[in-house]
Amino acid sequence: MPFSFFHLLCYITIIFAEVDAVNEGTSKSKSKLRLFVFGDSYVDTGNWRKSIGSSWKEPYGITFPGKPSGRFSDGRVLTDYIASYLGIRTPIAYKWRKEVKRSNLEYGMNFAYGGTGVLDTLANQPNMTTQIDFFQRLVEQKVYGKQDLDNSVALVSVAGNDYATYLARNTHDLQKLVDLTKKIMDQLEINIDRIRGLGVKRIAVTLIEPMGCIPLQAASSFYSNCTQALNLGSKFHNQMLSQSLQNLNAKDNSTVFITLDLYDAFFSALNKFTTHAPAGSLGLKPCCEGKEMGKYYCGSVDESGAKLYTICENPNLSFFWDTLHPSQNGWRTIFSSLRSSLHKLTT
């Protein structure tokens, strides 16, 4: 898939201590947990093929690990911070499961693919249902047994690309988004209940980010304002998702499903960033962007390999890495706003 096409389908999609600080307060009892990850580019850590994935091209990974690693960021993403909080290494990407030692599977597995959704999107990659199929196959093959699943948590971060695909196909018609949200919610509820049925004991589902604050949307205001109509769409999605999770918990009076409020975390993080970041911070402006909006993207090169993108001097002063994704600094700041919810994963 061409780099530019991938970014089209994702259309709607300071400095704190380094990752070691994420471990502060983490108990030793968390070290036996397995983390299973489902979703899109916000949590993908390397499932796209290197030959076609933009996340495997420079300058992605420039901050961590110093080269492209399949993450849609200059460094770490949400999965890395949550794994660190749980006291485990980042789980291996599903794509690489046969390339590593069995011991590398003991932290769980990441089934997320950038560009995918609850439903089919423009990305020709496994949607959430197929990702769960992969997980079920491993359970049936006894790669993960009952004891593993008894000490497991799941992270689900998905749906932005469902909206992006709809808008790309309907020329930005917002009139039927309510119907789309209901369709997404029906399938998402089936999917996450299926993860529970496979034995996972805690499932954290992210509320959707404020889609109108993504740099691709904020560009029309020269990165000074969010697009409120899209943020209202995010709020409606999140209200329905929160109700769905409450209903699932109420079915058997459980607390299996918890929400991670990515919407409020984005705004809280942006506020911290704009209030406390040093001079030179970028606000809603991405660190890496194409030299021509809509034609070139972060990582675009011409036939001779010359860069068709610009990159900021210091990614640590950016909240967003490219026109769609937070930087490592952004994810670190977002994570700090999610910490109060994460303790529910281990209680």
UniProtKB/TrEMBL annotation:
Key words of the record? Hydrolase, Lipid degradation, Lipid metabolism, Signal
**Is Membrane one of the keywords?**
no
Q: GO biological process: what's one of them? A: lipid catabolic process
Q: Name one GO molecular function term.
A: hydrolase activity, acting on ester bonds
Name the Gene3D superfamilies for this protein.
Answer: SGNH hydrolase
The positions making up the signal sequence are 1-21
Q: What Pfam families has UniProt attached to this entry?
A: Lipase_GDSL
Specify whether Disulfide bond is a keyword of the entry. no
- Say which family it is in: Belongs to the 'GDSL' lipolytic enzyme family.
Q: PANTHER family recorded for this chain?
A: OS04G0650200 PROTEIN (PTHR46020:SF4), OSJNBB0059K02.9 PROTEIN (PTHR46020)
The entry's protein name is GDSL esterase/lipase At5g03610-like
